[in-house]
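Exercise 3.2. Students should predict the tertiary structure of the chain below and write it as structure tokens, then compare their answer with the key that follows.

Predict this chain's 3D structure.
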Amino acid sequence: MLRNRRPKDVHGPTRTSPVPASASASAGGLSPSLRVLLTLAAATIALAGVYFAREVFGPVALAIVIVVICDPLRRPLDRRGWPRWASTTAVIALAYLILLAMGALLWLAGTQFMRLISDLVSEGGLTRVADQLISSLRSLGLDAESSDAAASVLSPETLLGVVRSVGGTVLSVATALFLVCAYIIFMAVDAARYRQAPVLFAATKGATIERIMRLNGGIRRYYVVNAAFGAIVAVIDGLALWWMGIPVPLVWAILAFVTNFIPNIGFILGLVPPAILAFVVGDWPLLLGVVAVYCVVNVVLQVLVQPKFVSDAVDLSLTLSFLSVIFWTFIIGPLGAILSIPLTLLVRTLVLEGDPGATWLRWLSGDRTAIPPEAHPSGASPSTARLEARPRRRRSARDGGTGDR
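Answer key:
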């Protein structure tokens, strides 16, 4: 019996060799590099679908933004006891007024611009100015090819092509506005129903509803502030151009208002057409005067004052804001330039804000609230740290500078 017993292991219990972290990660899930590649592939497929459906996606996005802007009108009406259908009708009416104003401004600016270019081409003023530009550039030492290329910007063929492209853009935007009119009705009706979501699903979807409400408030503040400053800039620029004798100053005032909704590069887009026209009408002195007026007015209002009002609504880095304009314009067309900031905020809200592991990506995008608590000495968020520091300062002053004991 004793011979059948197995000898006892003198080295103690058997130890298993540890599994490398990379092997366990690959066995338990996908590697980080593979997850990144799959994410990029899924994003590419989704964006390709948006690109091919841009004729529908753009107007839908514009309708959502307009309903988000107009929806606060419902609150005072509900407090006064209005029925839901009446408050919804008021929201739809306000949205239609905004669309009507946008359509009227685009139609007025487009017709005036095309009439101006036709007059300049028929009178031969563009040919004369192009010849003067060629002689001026050659006197500065440029060769014939460079001067001809620079003067080709003012050629009648080029400007007529610009007129045709502008007319096509205005027509496509007008068609999109007609589609938006239909979308707004359904979205405004659904918005009245969605207002019950915080009460019905606060326990299970409270964090998601809070993020969506914060996104809606940011979009609303962004467009309201941009519209206010855009109107101020348009009035000042229009009056200045009228005083300097630039033709059709109302067109350039409308252009300044519209381009104010395009971040970073909107100022340049609004400056180039009246500057070229100033050169056609009054040569270099008038061109420099227009550039000086735009730089003073737009830089002071749009660069120094306006960002202080929209910083709480749009926490996006300057690089991301600039790239978003180019990216969304390529994806959905001209409406992408105006809707670039809301669409970027929407992607960040849906993709990054719900993922605790994407805090650093939110911080890279410009979100100042995405600083992790461990990055602060007190282990709290910046707002919590400030609130906790106030009582300590008061006690320190009361105790004669001894601080907390």
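Discussion points: Confidence is low (pLDDT under 50) at residues 9-17, 21-28, 380-405. The CA atoms of residues 102 and 177 lie 9 Å apart.
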